[in-house]
Design a protein that fits this description.
Keywords: Membrane, Transmembrane, Transmembrane helix. The protein has two domains: about 1-40; about 45-95. The chain has about 120 residues and is mostly helical. It has six helices and no strands.
Length: about 120
């Protein structure tokens, strides 16, 4: 019993407020990293799966379409795979500049005089 008290006194002398706060911050960071890893490993829900199906059938972004098809063929998807797919789609959408549709009148005017 006396040895335990003596060891506790030594620990109290070595631990000051700064060290305790560093230990608490490190413990908090470990818990956050563990939770993030656990959440990313969970499977996606039905709404997210339907969006992957939509991305696999669209033709606007071919690289995203290919990645979505690969995920569908793989079977079970984790959230990290879904988030990577969304990031790829955003990246591809940012690269592609969509031009507004041309109006029919600009190319083929109705009042073309023939034979003049």
């Amino acid at each position: 019993m006396f040895i335990v008290k003596e060891n506790l006194e030594k620990i109290k002398k070595r631990l000051n407020l700064d060290r305790i706060s560093y230990i608490a911050i490190a413990l908090l960071l470990v818990i956050i990293a563990w939770q993030a890893k656990r959440l990313c490993a969970q499977p996606i829900n039905q709404t997210q799966y339907q969006y992957v199906v939509v991305l696999a059938t669209q033709a606007e972004f071919p690289n995203t379409q290919r990645a979505a098809r690969d995920l569908l063929l793989k079977g079970q998807m984790n959230r990290i795979h879904y988030l990577k797919l969304l990031r790829a789609q955003q990246f591809e959408a940012a690269k592609v500049r969509q031009q507004p549709a041309m109006q029919l009148e600009e190319n083929y005017p109705h009042n073309v005089q023939q034979g003049s």
